[in-house]
Each structure stands twice: as C-alpha cells, then as structure tokens.
Amino acid sequence: MTAPTDTSRPTELPRVDRAADGSIPLLWGWRYRNWFFLLLAGSVLFRLAYTPLVPLTGDELMHWQWSRHLALGYPEHPPMIAWLMAINTSLFGTFQTTVRLATVLSVTGLFAIAFQLGRELFDERAAFFGVVPLMLTPFFNAGGVLANTDGLLAFFWAVAVYGAKKAVLDGKRWAWLLFASGAGLALLSKTTALFLIPSTALVLVATPEGRAWLRRWEPYAATVLALLFFSPQLIWSMQHDWITFSMRVGHQSAGGLTLVFLGELVAAQLALVTPVLFVWVVWGLWKSWRNRADSRAVLLGAYMAVPFLSYSAYSLTARAGVHWPAIGYVTGFIAAGAFTAAVTRPRFARRFMTIACVPAVLITGLLLYIPVFPERISMTWSYWGRPEKVSTGQLDNIFDWGEVGATVREVYDQGSGDAFLLCRDGYGFAGLMAFYTPGRPDTFIWKLQRRNGVAYDMWRAEADLVGRDAVIVEERWNQEWFDELRGSFDSMSEPRHLEIHRADRVIKEFYVIYGTNFAGFPDVSADAAR
C-alpha cells in the first residue's frame, strides 16, 4: 500500500525538496546535518563525562535497587529501566556511569530519530531548527544525565512516532511493526506511553491517508502487539492488586478545581524549557492546528497535543509532575522548527534560533554547574507551595556519600559479615546507603513505605532476616526509634556519629549502630497482608 503525503494542499509548512535537501550550508560550508551530528556527538560525550561527577539521587537508586531484584514489573513504573540497568552493570560493572548509561544513550538516540523524522517530513534545515533547541532545553539536556524512566520513554516514543509516520504518511506496511515495537517498549518504560494510542488514533481519523488505513487490519494488529509487549507489567500489576495504577489515582488531589497546580505546571515549563522556547513550541502546536489540512502538521500536532493538553487539564484538579508534559515536546519542537524555517528568511531564522537558545544554554549550564559545586551557592530559597521539596536546602543532599558508606562499612566489618543494612524511613536514603556502602549489602527499611518505595515493603516481606545481624543507619538522632529497635535485637552497639561539613556548618549528621540477632519487624503481619 503506497499513500505518500499530499503536500499540494495549502500549507505554511516547507515543501519537501530532496534535490536541494542538504545542499545549503549552515556555517563555514558545513551542511545542517554535519553540524547536527557534531553537536550530537559532543552532547553524548559531555554527558558521559559528567555522570561520574554528581552523586546518584534517591530516585535513580530506587531504579538501581529494582535492577538487583529483577521482576516482571514494579510498583512505581514498568521494568524497562531496571532490566537495562541490570544488563549495563553486569557487563561493565556497577558505577555511577553504568547506572546512568541507558538514559544517556536513549536521549542521544531520541535526538537522532527526531532529526531523521524532521528531515523526512521537511528538510535538513527544518529538522535542525527543531531538534537542536530540543537538545539544548534544560529538561532534555540536564535531565539526560539522570537514570530516569523519561529518557527511555522519549526514545521509544520517538521510534513509535517515526513508525507511524512511515506507515500512515508513506504507506509502508512494515512500519506498523516498527510502531508496535516502539510503542510496546515505551509502555515497558513508563505508562505515559498509553498516550500513543489516542494520539495515533487522532492521526488516523484526521488525515486522508490515515482514514484509508482504518479499513485495514495493520493498525489494530499493531495496537494488540504493543499491548503484548506491555504484558509483563500488566501480569505483575494483576498479581499485586493493580498497585501501579491505583497508587496514582487521586494523588495530590486538590479536592476540586484549582488554578494553583496549573500555574505551577506552566511556571515549571517556563523554567525547564525556557520562556522563549516554551512559547515557541506552543506556537508550533497552534500553527499545526491552523495547518491541519497538511497531514504532516496533524502528525506532529497530535503527538504533542494529546499528552500536553491532557496533563494541563489534569492539573486543574491535582498536581502534575513538572516533567510529565515533556514527551509532547519531541514532535512539538519539530513542528515549531518547520514553521520557523518556512515563514522566515534563513538569516532571520538562524538569528532567532541563536537568541532563543542562549537562555536554554545558560539555564542548562547553571543546572549542571550547581550539583558539581553546591558549596558555592550561598543564597537560600524555597517555593512556598512545596518548601520541603523545592528549595536550596536540597543542595545539602549533594556531597560525597562514599564518606558515609565507608563509615557504615567499618561498623559492618565489626560483625559476622552477614549483616544487612536497616534504615528507618525513605527509599532515597536507603538507596544511597545501599549503593555507596562498599560491598553493597542488602538494604531494608523499618517503616512501611505505602507509596513511593513500596517495593521495599515487598522485599522485606520476602526476605528471611530473622537471626541475622544488622547495621542500623539513621540521618539524625532519633531516641524514640532507637528505643523501639532494642526490642528487635539481642544487643545494640554504641552509636557511631558522623558529621558532614560544608564551609562553616554541619549539613548532615549520621548515626550508625550494630545490632545482633534480629527478631523481625514488629509490623510483619502488615507485610503479609499486602
């Protein structure tokens, strides 16, 4: 079946001119694609060099802990990130770089596929104007060094969109298999990928090429195949009372309509995308709607509009994650770049791109600089809506956690050698202790987590810890908890006290205790009931 895109209808988008594509130099005689791949190579090398410089975060180490307990699925997200992390660490060793490697490579692949998508839809210049600003946004640039599910989602999302383009607009039957594979692996990365289904349905309904496919079996078979890819997480969720989905329902709900959360979401986009680029990509979405007679505009607009508008509507009743709408920017930036290339002169377009990207580079540079040199930030600030999460006080969590791990190991070596680590609360702190303690002992949490970090509840219910010794680690002195612990151990050593200093102040305190012959968790019956 061949159904090439009809670009004869009125449109503001660039015409496809394969004869001229790539013949126009950008600078110093180099073509747009040469400059793009030079920037792409530089970006991946920079991220690989940057990853060892900043300690892993609690969320990253939650995913790493999953990779030590491989399963078909997990409470917070599907298993793809854990599976890839397990492969990378088993092949190359367990380091900060190997923990983050899957995200670094995925984001690099995302940019390459997005450029090829823009080039096939339009030309090299339009693809360059769309994808290079995307590369420079703080979200994709700074976020591209963290071991998160969003990088994997974005890569496989781009694969699925490219497959949809080849199938719907180019009429390639085999491309439905590419779409199904990308969509299925995106679903295995993050459930946000479910937006691919209504987005693709919109492309099929709203374009003449797509309506022709509605009478064929391939799109429906591709949807079923994508869901089959997702079946490991579905099976796991079914076995665990659908916790992956139920834990999201009603979380941080306002209890009614509110503009506060929408304002937070928009403000975060202005910061993480930058004001100029955010307005620009929304302009690209609007122009896609205005040019909906062009199937290319429908394709790009649909894959941005569905997640972007859905999360905007969601934020009217509950707080949305600031990173949730970002998946829509992949095609949104391509559309904005194409319209910019079409409606402006080349010299003006280049100047606009330069001016628009400078703030992105500055903000990205600041976001990358601060974690490396947190001691140079003397100001204090917090967001009134979430002061416990969004404040400069979070910088106190960035230091050499290996120093704490070394102290924990010294206490560990005083015992039998078969001890486990026990933290009072917090999956992030537990992950930091597990990773940065030499030997990386098994780590458990005393307090039931209930929501984020609930995998620790499951692991401790499955583990046979009775009779083993434990190294107890707490971030601050907690006499009530220490007294509670005495009923679960035959004996407990005197606390080992460690202070972490920055400039002239103590930013963290830790207490490390050795306990013998663990008797079990007092709420073990609650574990069994989960």
Brief overview:
With 530 residues, this protein is of the alpha/beta class. It contains 23 helices and 8 strands. The protein has 2 domains: 28-370, no CATH class; 399-529, no CATH class.
Structure characterization notes:
This protein is an alpha/beta fold. The protein has 2 domains: 28-370, no CATH class; 399-529, no CATH class. The chain is 56% helix and 7% strand. It has helices spanning 32-50, 58-68, 80-92, 96-121, 124-136, 138-142, 149-169, 175-187, 196-206, 208-213, 218-229, 231-239, 243-246, 260-272, 275-290, 295-314, 329-343, 346-372, 401-412, 427-436, 455-462, 479-485, 524-529; strands spanning 25-27, 30-31, 420-423, 443-445, 470-474, 491-492, 496-502, 505-516. The strands form 2 sheets. Strands 3, 4, 5, 6, 7 and 8 form a 6-stranded mixed beta sheet that branches. A hairpin with a 2-residue loop joins strand 1 and strand 2.
Helix content: 55-70%
Please tell me the total number of domains: 2
- Shape descriptor: globular
Count every helix, treating DSSP H or I runs of 4 or more residues as helices: 23
Radius of gyration: 25 Å
Distance between termini? 52 Å
Record field, number of beta strands: 8
Instruction: Tell me, rounded to a whole number, the average pLDDT.
Output: 89
Q: Strand pairing plus helix content: what structural class?
A: alpha/beta
How many strands, which pairing sense, and closed or not: the largest β-sheet? 6 strands, mixed
Strand content: 5-15%
Note poorly predicted spans. 1-5, 525-530
